[in-house]
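Objective 1b: paired records.
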Amino acid sequence: MPARRPTSRKDAANDAAVNVWQNRIVGEGVERADQLLANPMNFRIHPKNQQDAMTGVLNQVGWVQRVIVNKRTNHIVDGHLRVSLAISAGAQDVPVIYVDLTEEEEALVLATLDPISAMAATDADKLRELMELVSTDEPAIGAMLAALTEDTGVIEPDWASAFDSVPSGDKEPFQQMTFTLADSQVETVKVAMSKAIKSGVTSPDNENSNGNALWGIAHAYLHG
């Protein structure tokens, strides 16, 4: 039998770190959506475009991730939007995973779970490959993915084609404007336009999202 390699201080520290990662999952099951308790400390607000995108995924695929519930408090720790949509849709059964956390631990997980996920960076090449495999007939999912690919530079937004998409008979009350930007200005304008579009800026006089985005930015600048 080969001699066992002496345990280094680094190995011992790594082993100790792994040993303290407790498994706090204590069960799983199915609950009625209207019986699940929203967490009173939930700070997330879900805009309509997010609700529509999540509804689209649930419609097209279904449940692929369980709602997390703290067994001690019965509060939802993760999955508020899915539960809310299930209630609105009349869905009764929600897949649940139960964890056992103190109130202090529950607050920590609630405060960090989504923000830690949001810290992830994007590999544009991998995202481009992934988008080639993705198809959907859900408009909200399509809009979300379009915004994602534009924000990450995977697909360049085609601002020039916006006016051409307006039917000929509807062009009369509109004007097409063209701007020249320096290379150093382009990214700032792209990001601002994409954020304005994602925020849902609208005008009763215009259905074009790009035009509404530019108008919204100008309106905010003038009326702050």
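Objective 1b, second protein:
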Amino acid sequence: MVVPATGDIGESLPAQPARTNEYPTMITITFHRTGPPRAIRIRIVRVPAGDAPEAARKAWVGGKLPLHLPGMYRPKVSGIRSPARGRFENWIRCRLGLIEGRVGYLVEAGPAVEELSRHNPPAARWYRVNIPQRLGPGEIFHFAAEECRTVETE
């Protein structure tokens, strides 16, 4: 139904539709997470790269480790025996190509060595004796993506 409208002076205004109490149809959109749940553990499937002895690195294969943070990251990685001692040294090593960014998973070092000691005590002992400073709170090990698999995807 169209009602003609008039102004104050009596002039005709364009016709406007009559108002009703009906509301237009509302469309509601909800977003649901469609991706797989984020993993909280990884299984080591290949010998990790690094400057630890090969026997100690081979001991990681088959172990399940809890992740420090879910998802993959690309941090600048240096060796466990010779970490950078400051920002400037880290910057120099990056420029010289001694530190590289590798995509992988972050694991807390202390709990990882505890897990390692369950199936290979001599390898865990090597880490505790040779790099005790890298096993404290806040210390992180990095395992490359090609060296491990998430437990949920197996």
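The chain has a mean pLDDT of 75. The chain has one domain: 41-153.
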